[in-house]
Design brief:
It contains two helices and two strands, in the order ααββ. It is elongated and about 60 Å long. The longest helix is centred in the middle third of the chain and has 29 residues. The chain has 77 residues and is of the alpha+beta class. 60% of the residues lie in helices and 13% in strands. The chain has one domain: Helix Hairpins (Orthogonal Bundle). Strands 1-2 form a two-stranded antiparallel ribbon. Helix 1 packs antiparallel against helix 2.
């Protein structure tokens, strides 16, 4: 298995979906299920991190002249 921190969002999501299918099918023993669950949690974190990074690269926090905070497309400051 590749290191989680090297996976793209798509790779991490695909592996996470595979783990969920296997756990839902009940086709793994308890020890394997625990290992799958632990990896699944780490994969979920990786996906959340990659999504946050992608969002930050697209949007930035912008202040209006009135001092309000809102979202603006990245690079329009």
């Amino acid at each position: 298995m590749p290191a989680i921190d090297t996976l793209t969002f798509e790779q991490a999501l695909a592996e996470l979906e595979s783990i969920v299918r296997q756990l839902e099918a009940g086709s793994v023993d308890l020890e394997s299920a625990v290992r799958f669950y632990e990896r699944g949690v780490a994969l979920r974190r990786r996906c959340e991190t990659r999504l946050a990074e992608a969002r930050m690269s697209v949007e930035s926090i912008a202040r209006t002249p009135e001092g309000e905070t809102g979202l603006a497309p990245f690079g329009t400051e």
